[in-house]
Write a structure and sequence with these properties.
This protein is mostly helical. The protein has two helices and no strands. The radius of gyration is 23 Å and the shape is elongated. The mean pLDDT is about 75.
């Protein structure tokens, strides 16, 4: 009985760790975008007051774009892993059904 509980706890902690990583990736990337957008607005306001400063692509915009790209790649990777695991599961079930 104790072994079953230990195995169950291990599975729960593994899944929590996996979701924690996903949340960090998605929320962290979104946070970068929000902070970057705020910095971009402040930079644009400052640029309007300076007549010689006409930067269209600021560092904040670049950081925001890179953060969103990372979040997009992470989402695509998670979807790929999910689809691949379901495909392997169904192939394994078909193999087990053929053998029995």
């Amino acid at each position: 009985m104790l072994t079953v509980v230990m195995i169950w706890l291990e599975v729960v902690f593994r899944r929590l760790s996996e979701w924690k990583g996903r949340l960090i990736a998605y929320i962290g990337g979104g946070g970068i975008s929000i902070v970057s957008s705020t910095s971009s607005v402040k930079a644009q306001v400052a640029a309007e007051h300076l007549p010689s400063a006409q930067a269209t692509l600021t560092t904040a915009n670049v950081i925001s774009i890179v953060g969103l790209i990372f979040v997009g790649f992470r989402l695509a990777f998670d979807v790929y892993v999910y689809i691949n695991s379901k495909r392997k599961e169904s192939e394994q079930n078909r193999t087990e059904q053929r053998e029995s």
